[in-house]
């Protein structure tokens, strides 16, 4: 068991089996290599990546597909070779979130996701070459886009049903005439 005094969670104990190793650390914190993944709370999609070497360092993580379903992580074998990922199912992708005082201004670092292999408890932060992604991507703007897209899909579905009903009514009228 590893005991750590943390700023956010007080003293925590983490079983060795639950420790995550990031051999290269996190950008800006290369010296910190041991972490624990903690739930924000049961209902929340957010997790905490708590350093086990510095109790004052913890990062908020989230699955980027929750707010950007078309998010794509393209890496080459060499970038993640030390994770020993055997299949896509072994890999978990998260992004670091910045939570300012106003949650509407929450941003996610889509440019540098953290990839974990939960089978061997190793992780690595990688920098993507895709220029569409930024280090301060607005989570709320993406959520608004998704809501609009969902609303548009629902509206299209209603309009299609109305067209089908109108066409059916016209067919029935022609048959009875």
Report the total helices: 2
- The outline comes out as elongated
Q: Remind me, CATH topology?
A: BH3618-like
Low-confidence stretches: none
What's the CATH C level?
A: Mainly Beta
Report the span from N to C terminus.
83 Å
User: SS-based structural class?
Assistant: alpha+beta
Order of helices and strands: EEEEEEHEEEEEH
Helical amount: 10-25%
CATH architecture: Roll
Q: Return the domain count.
A: 1
What is the percentage of strand-forming residues? 25-35%
Please tell me how large the radius of gyration is: 23 Å
Strands, total number: 11
CATH homologous group name: BH3618-like
Mean pLDDT: 85
The profile of the biggest β sheet is:
9 strands, antiparallel
Protein described:
The chain is of the alpha+beta class and 177 residues long. It has a single domain (2-138), classed as BH3618-like (Roll), CATH 2.30.290. The protein is 24% helix and 28% strand. It contains two helices and eleven strands, in the order E-E-E-E-E-E-H-E-E-E-E-E-H. It has helices spanning 77-80, 139-176; strands at 2-6, 10-14, 19-21, 34-39, 47-51, 58-62, 91-98, 107-108, 114-117, 122-125, 137-138. The strands form two sheets. Strands 3, 4, 5, 6, 7, 8, 9, 10 and 11 form a nine-stranded antiparallel β-sheet that branches. The radius of gyration is 23 Å and the shape is elongated. The N and C termini lie far apart (83 Å). The mean pLDDT is 85.
């Amino acid at each position: 068991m590893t005991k750590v005094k943390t700023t956010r969670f007080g003293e925590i104990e983490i079983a060795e089996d639950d420790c995550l190793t990031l051999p290269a650390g996190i950008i800006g914190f290369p010296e910190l290599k041991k972490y624990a993944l903690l739930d924000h709370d049961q209902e929340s999609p957010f997790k905490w990546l708590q350093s086990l070497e510095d109790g004052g360092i913890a990062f908020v993580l989230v699955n980027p597909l929750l707010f950007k379903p078309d998010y794509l992580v393209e890496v080459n074998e060499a970038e993640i070779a030390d994770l020993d990922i055997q299949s896509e199912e072994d890999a978990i992708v998260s992004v670091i979130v910045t939570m300012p005082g106003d949650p509407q201004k929450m941003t996610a670092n889509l440019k540098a996701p953290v990839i974990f292999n939960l089978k061997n408890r190793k992780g690595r932060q990688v920098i993507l070459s895709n220029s569409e992604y930024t280090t301060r991507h607005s989570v709320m703007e993406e959520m608004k886009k998704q809501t609009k897209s969902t609303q548009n899909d629902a509206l299209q579905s209603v309009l299609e049903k109305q067209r089908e009903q109108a066409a059916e009514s016209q067919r029935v009228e022609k048959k009875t005439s």
